[in-house]
From TrEMBL:
Organism: Leptospira wolbachii serovar Codice str. CDC
Active site positions: R337
Gene: sdhA_2
Pfam families in the cross-refs: FAD_binding_2 (PF00890), Succ_DH_flav_C (PF02910)
Top-rank EC class of the record's enzyme: oxidoreductase
Record protein name field: succinate dehydrogenase
Entry GO MF terms: electron transfer activity; flavin adenine dinucleotide binding; succinate dehydrogenase (quinone) activity
C-alpha cells in the first residue's frame, strides 16, 4: 500500500437536519431544471438492470434525452431478472411492529455499522412509495386472501417486510421497469444500444463527458458524448468464478471508472450467500441460488455424527444438529447471511458436511410440509422447488435440499456521495455498482429495493444539482483528442489479445483467480492468507499480461473469448485491490471475517475505534499501490453496538 494515506477531502453531501427530515430537506433545496430545458441534456445510462432501466425511464419521462447501453442482446436480460426472493418495504402490513425506523436499524445493524446513517434511513423511507409504484406498474406481488400484499421474512429481521412474486420477484420488477423503458423508447426519448460493451470513459477537465463502447456483433468501437453518465452495471461477484451471478456479469464498467479517477470503496466486502447449490464437479461455470426466502419455512441442519451414512429421511431428530437454531435461538434459520454462511462453512470444515462431496448442509421442508401442507409451500416457493428438481432430479418436498455458501453480492463498489455521484463530477453510480447503503453485509431483499429507489427516486432528484448551470453547454465532439486517445488505447488492447497466440484459456485464469479469492478473501481471511494471495494474483496477472492466452483472432465479429479477455484483465487488477483492502482492515465486520479478530465464541469482533470508516481507494497508476482515503462514519441516531443475533 502506498505509504501516503491521504486525507479524505470529498464531500459526502449528507444534508443537515434531523435524520427523518434529511431527504425531504434535500429535495426541497435541490436545484430544478425547467421542463423546456431538460431536452437539451443528454444522459448516458450504462446498464439496463433494475437500477438502469428505472433511471433511464424516469429521466426520459422527465424530458431528458437518454441513451441506454447494455452488453446483452435485450435490455431485460440484465441480471436483476434472476433475483428471486423479494423486495423489502417498511409498510407494516402485518402489523408486527415494523416501521421506517425499525428497517433503518435492522439495515444498519445488519451491515455491522459500516454504512452511512443518512443513506440507510433514506433507503427505508423510500421503500414505502416504491411498493406503490411497483403495484401501479402491474407487478404481480403475492397477496393474502383479503387482497393485501403478502409479506415474508428475510434474514436478520424479526418482522415480515419482504414483498414477493413467488420466487421471481426480480423478474417481475424488471419487467415493470423494462416496460417503462420501452414506452420511452417508443416515444423517442430513450435510444437503446444493446450488444454494446462500455470499455472506457472520457473525462475532460475532471468531468465525465463520454464513453466508448464496443459493438459486440461487429467489433466496431463507437464513441458517445453526454452531459452526465450513470453507471448501473451491477455487481462483480463473478470475480470468484463460481458464484450465483450470471456468466456475463463483470467488473469492467466499475473498474475502468476507477482507473479514470472514481474512488473505489470497500472492494473486499463480498456477500457469500448461504443457500446456493453446492459445487458438484470441477467443470461448472456457475452455481445456482436457492432464495433465502426458503429459510422462512425450511430448517437447516447437518448430522450430529461425522460418520453418518443414513439417508437424511432416516436420520431421527435426536441425531440432527439444527446448528443455526442451536447457536442463534432468537433468529434461528433467519440469522443474517454472513453469520449463516460462516456457520455452514464451519460445519463443513469440521467434516459434518453432507452430499456426495461433503460440501453442503441440508435445508429441510419436512416440518413445514406437516404444518403448512404442500399446497401452501408450492404457492410460496413453487418455481424454486421446480428449479431444484430440474437441476438435481430430487424433489425437495420429499428429500432435503443440499445447499452451500457461494459468492453472491458486492457490497463494495464505486464510492458515491449522498447524490449518488462518484468522485468524478458528472459520473454517477447506482444499484449494485455503488457501495452506498449496505455496509459490510447486505440484508436480504434490500438490493432490489436499493437498485429501484436509486433509479426511480434518488438520481432524478440529484442529477439537476449538477446539470442546472450547464443549460447552454454543448456536447464535447467525439473527435476530441481525449476520445481519440482512448480509442487508440482500446484498439491496442484488442490487438494484444487477438495476437497473443498463447495456450491458456481465459476461463482457466478465471477459475484459478476465483479459487485464490474464495480461499483467501472469501468467508474467512487472515494476514498470511491475504499476503500470499496478493503474490499469487500478481504472478497470475504477469502470466496473463505476458500474452499466454488463447483468444480467436477475429476482432470484427462476435468473439466471446475476446470479451472475456478484457474483463479478465480488469478482474486481475481488482482482485489485488480486494486483498489489499481486506488486509488493511484489522477487524472483523459483517462479511469481512478476519481470523485474527474474533470473540471467544467465534463471532466477528469489530474495532470501532480504529475502523469506523469506508475505505476509499484512489487509482495511483500502479495497481499494487493504491492511495487510501478514509471516509469516517458518524453515528448520531443508532449507536454501534455488538451485533447479537442470539
Ligand atoms: C441469483 C440472485 C438472486 C437475487 N435475489 C435477490 C432478491 O430476492 N432480493 C434482492 O433484493 N436482491 C436479490 N439479488 C441481488 C439483486 O438482484 C441485484 O443486486 C440487483 O438486481 C442489481 O441490479 P443492478 O441494476 O444494479 O444490476 P444488474 O441487474 O446486474 O444489471 C447490470 C446491467 O449492466 C450492464 N452492464 C454491465 N457491464 C456493462 C458494460 N461494461 N457495458 C455495458 N453494459 C454493461 C448489463 O448488461 C446489465 O444490463 C439477487 C442476486 C442474484 C445473483
Amino acid at each position: 500500500m502506498n505509504e501516503k494515506e491521504k486525507k479524505f477531502h470529498w464531500d459526502s453531501k449528507i444534508p443537515d437536519g434531523p435524520l427523518e427530515e434529511k431527504w425531504n430537506f434535500f429535495k426541497r433545496n435541490s436545484k430544478l431544471i425547467s421542463p423546456n430545458n431538460r431536452k437539451k441534456f443528454k444522459i448516458i445510462v450504462v446498464g439496463t438492470g433494475l437500477s438502469g432501466c428505472a433511471a433511464a425511464a424516469t429521466l426520459a419521462e422527465q424530458g431528458y434525452q437518454v441513451s441506454s447501453f447494455c452488453f446483452h442482446e435485450s435490455a431485460r436480460r440484465a441480471h436483476s431478472i434472476a433475483a428471486q426472493g423479494g423486495v423489502n418495504a417498511a409498510k407494516n402490513y402485518k402489523n408486527d411492529g415494523d416501521s421506517v425506523t425499525r428497517m433503518f436499524r435492522d439495515t444498519l445493524k445488519g451491515g455491522d455499522f459500516r454504512s452511512r446513517e443518512a443513506n440507510v434511513y433514506r433507503l427505508s423511507e423510500c421503500s414505502i412509495p416504491f411498493i406503490d409504484l411497483a403495484v401501479s406498474q402491474g407487478v404481480p406481488f403475492n397477496r393474502e386472501y383479503g387482497g393485501y400484499l403478502e409479506n415474508r421474512s428475510f434474514g436478520g429481521v424479526q418482522v415480515s417486510r419482504t414483498f414477493y412474486s413467488k420466487g421471481q420477484t426480480g423478474q417481475q420488477l424488471l419487467l415493470g421497469a423494462y416496460q417503462a423503458l420501452m414506452r420511452q423508447i417508443h416515444l423517442g426519448n430513450v435510444k437503446l444500444y444493446t450488444n454494446s460493451e462500455l470499455l472506457d470513459y472520457i473525462i475532460i477537465d475532471g468531468q465525465a463527458k463520454g464513453i466508448i463502447v464496443r459493438n459486440l456483433l461487429n467489433g466496431q468501437l463507437e464513441k458517445y458524448s453526454a452531459h452526465a453518465i450513470v453507471v448501473a452495471s451491477g455487481g462483480f461477484g463473478k470475480i470468484y468464478y463460481l458464484s450465483t451471478l450470471a456468466l456475463g456479469c463483470n467488473a469492467t464498467a466499475v473498474w475502468r471508472a476507477h482507473k479514470k479517477g472514481a474512488l473505489f470503496a470497500n472492494p473486499s466486502w463480498t456477500q457469500i450467500h448461504p443457500t446456493s447449490l453446492p459445487q458438484s464437479n470441477g467443470y461448472q461455470s456457475k452455481l445456482t441460488l436457492m432464495s433465502e426466502s426458503l429459510r422462512n419455512d425450511g430448517r437447516i441442519w447437518v448430522p450430529k455424527s461425522k460418520e453418518e451414512h443414513r439417508s437424511p429421511g432416516d436420520i431421527p431428530e435426536e441425531d440432527r444438529d439444527y446448528y443455526l437454531e442451536r447457536k442463534y435461538p432468537s433468529y434461528g434459520n433467519l440469522a443474517p447471511r454472513d453469520i449463516s454462511s460462516r456457520a455452514a462453512k464451519e460445519r463443513i470444515d469440521l467434516d459434518f458436511g453432507v452430499g456426495p462431496l461433503k460440501n453442503a448442509v441440508y435445508l429441510d421442508f419436512k416440518d413445514a410440509k406437516k404444518t403448512l401442507g404442500e399446497e401452501v409451500l408450492r404457492a410460496r416457493y413453487g418455481n424454486l422447488f421446480d428449479m431444484y428438481k430440474k437441476i438435481t432430479d430430487v424433489n425437495p418436498l420429499s428429500e432435503p435440499m443440499l445447499i452451500s455458501p457461494s459468492a453472491h453480492f458486492s457490497m463494495g463498489g464505486l464510492w458515491v456521495d449522498y447524490e449518488l455521484m462518484t468522485s468524478v463530477p458528472g459520473l454517477y453510480a447506482i444499484g449494485e455498482a455503488n457501495f452506498a447503503d449496505h455496509g459490510a453485509n447486505r440484508l436480504g431483499a434490500n438490493s432490489l429495493l436499493q437498485a429501484s429507489v436509486d433509479g426511480y427516486f434518488i438520481l432524478p432528484v440529484t442529477l439537476p444539482n449538477y446539470l442546472h448551470d450547464k443549460v447552454n453547454l454543448g456536447l464535447v465532439s467525439t473527435d476530441h483528442p481525449s476520445f481519440l486517445e482512448s480509442e487508440e488505447k482500446i484498439k491496442n488492447e484488442i490487438h494484444f489479445f487477438t495476437k497473443a497466440n498463447g495456450q491458456k484459456l481465459v476461463d482457466d485464469y478465471h477459475k484459478e483467480l476465483g479459487k485464490i479469492l474464495y480461499d483467501a478473501c472469501g468467508l474467512k481471511r487472515s494476514e498470511s492468507g491475504l499476503k500470499s494471495a496478493i503474490e499469487t494474483i500478481q504472478n497470475l496477472r504477469e502470466n496473463f499480461l505476458s500474452g499466454n492466452i488463447k483468444v480467436p483472432t477475429d476482432a470484427f465479429s462476435k468473439n466471446a473469448e475476446l470479451e472475456k479477455a478484457g474483463r479478465m484483465k480488469d478482474y486481475l487488477e481488482l482482485a489485488e485491490l480486494m486483498c489489499l483492502d481486506a488486509l488493511l482492515r484489522e477487524e472483523s465486520c459483517g462479511a469481512h471475517f478476519r481470523m485474527e479478530h474474533q470473540t471467544a465464541d467465534g463471532e466477528a469482533k469489530r474495532d470501532d475505534k480504529n475502523f469506523q470508516f469506508v475505505s476509499c481507494f484512489e487509482w495511483s497508476g500502479d495497481v499494487s499501490k493504491p492511495i487510501l482515503h478514509k471516509e469516517t462514519l458518524e453515528f448520531e441516531y443508532f449507536f454501534p453496538k455488538d451485533r447479537d443475533y442470539k
